[in-house]
Amino acid sequence: MYQLIKTFRFTIILLFIFTIIFLFAKYLLLPIIIFILIIRFFNYFKFTKVTNKSSSKSKNNDNAFIDAEYEDVD
Description:
Blueprint: H1 2-45, H2 58-61
């Protein structure tokens, strides 16, 4: 009798583990694989980040700001 309960308990634990693995594969593994394939596809074309060349002029623009004090007009 004890051997039957032990076997039944082992079967339930094994079924639970397989269910967790199945749910992981169903909902997480497929999107992860698709994401990896998309990233590899984009790396194949070697996209580069577009740099803004006007940022180099920011040193000259620091002196272009006008400081003014506003006074109330009577």
